[in-house]
Amino acid sequence: MEKKKKAEAWYEEQGDKRFYKFPRTPHLAGSEVVDDDEVVDQKTLMTALSLNPDLKIIVQEKMDGTNVSLYFEEEWMAVPQKRAGLIGTGEKPQYDVFRNWVYENLETLFSITGTEYVSTSRSMYSNAIS
After folding, report:
1. Are residues 118 and 56 in the same domain?
2. Measuring CA to CA, which residue among 122, 125, 17 is closest to residue 72?
């Protein structure tokens, strides 16, 4: 999970809660991307490498899943989110699974993020067929 300080996160008000926007994921030019994703072209990459020869680049395959995040307004007051807004009850099953997991792990999650950080991740959900 990526941790980002709240002061550095871009947010908007949604009712009485804040919704923190998700970070953008840069993609290499030529990869299959969604139109609004950030693309790093070859010239930009080569310039970055020439300016800093010790620069390490990590290339990862992106797993498909749903974007989720979490922040705490105060202890025991978790605010679970999805890419489009806050997670309510009775939504898609993957959001119910994530929300339940958050509430089952409140103490541990709060000890990691406190009220200072927003934690973002990709949630994987399987609806197995037997």
Report:
1. no
2. 17
Residue 118 and residue 97 share a domain: yes
pLDDT tens per residue, range 113-126: 999 888 887 777 66
Q: Give the structural domain span for 51.
A: 26-61
Whether residue 128 is contained in a domain is answered as no
Evaluate whether 86 touches 17 at the Cβ level (below 8 Å): yes
Amino acid letter, residue 61: E
Residues 16-56 have pLDDT tens digits of 677 777 666 677 777 665 566 677 778 888 888 888 888 88
What is the H or E stretch that residue 124 is in?
Answer: none
42 and 90 together in one domain: no
